[in-house]
């Protein structure tokens, strides 16, 4: 799966979001702010415009933290900035060379241990606040600054401007910093999401997303119960059908949808209970798998996989073991 998006900040200026939407951009990562409580000057407008036009978005916070407490506060500032919006994509910790240089100016040398602890502090606080956490890294920081265990706990947004990424297992790849799209003057970063992150987040009940609810409702031809699903920006009938173990043809017929390519955010889709797949699923762990990667693949969370399978340490899973997903 490849879902294409961009990331923006004040440096993209006043964006024409009508034009951006017309390009088929599927998601946006917006800089919410930086440091200790500084909101990006364009954040409010960018978030409002994406919300108004139904463009799914996540956010990132550029870090100038050099203690765990500062990183936690940055997480709190970030969530305060976004709590009035429907953030369908992750909340990301962005720690880069400028972050390291700032710490050096404050007399602090950023070691691998410190950098990793900052990721943990920010991401764990984001999760405590009910949001989906991610961290940003290039290959140098993966090798030199961030402990490998982080990739087993949090989703990775990986930056490498190349034809193919050198790393693997990331949730999102920033593959260019020189993209050009209608509505934005100058260059813009381009990204690919390898998972339907909006679906993962919604199904896990994170980011305060208003997802589906189960409610009894009369069928057009019988009194059977149905699932009532509220379409969210970025949804299509095929993805909704796959989520509930049915087909888009069944949903189109059941809901009198003439064109299955035309559904809209806020629309109510009825899914007959008889077509809702409730049987347990299982997955056999392969070499190189991580619990976070498996969770992303199957639209669940690490915590839920631990609960279902009695896994105490998410960093200790073994190839050949079959787990319930």
UniProtKB/TrEMBL annotation:
<dbReference type="InterPro" id="IPR018392">
    <property type="entry name" value="LysM"/>
</dbReference>
<protein>
    <submittedName>
        <fullName>Glycosyl hydrolase family 25</fullName>
    </submittedName>
</protein>
<dbReference type="Pfam" id="PF01183">
    <property type="entry name" value="Glyco_hydro_25"/>
</dbReference>
<dbReference type="InterPro" id="IPR036779">
    <property type="entry name" value="LysM_dom_sf"/>
</dbReference>
<keyword id="KW-0378">Hydrolase</keyword>
<dbReference type="InterPro" id="IPR017853">
    <property type="entry name" value="GH"/>
</dbReference>
<dbReference type="GO" id="GO:0009253">
    <property type="term" value="P:peptidoglycan catabolic process"/>
</dbReference>
<dbReference type="Pfam" id="PF01476">
    <property type="entry name" value="LysM"/>
</dbReference>
<dbReference type="GO" id="GO:0016998">
    <property type="term" value="P:cell wall macromolecule catabolic process"/>
</dbReference>
<dbReference type="GO" id="GO:0016052">
    <property type="term" value="P:carbohydrate catabolic process"/>
</dbReference>
<dbReference type="GO" id="GO:0003796">
    <property type="term" value="F:lysozyme activity"/>
</dbReference>
<dbReference type="InterPro" id="IPR018077">
    <property type="entry name" value="Glyco_hydro_fam25_subgr"/>
</dbReference>
<comment type="similarity">
    <text>Belongs to the glycosyl hydrolase 25 family.</text>
</comment>
<feature type="domain" description="LysM">
    <location>
        <begin position="227"/>
        <end position="271"/>
    </location>
</feature>
<feature type="domain" description="LysM">
    <location>
        <begin position="281"/>
        <end position="325"/>
    </location>
</feature>
<dbReference type="InterPro" id="IPR002053">
    <property type="entry name" value="Glyco_hydro_25"/>
</dbReference>
<keyword id="KW-0326">Glycosidase</keyword>
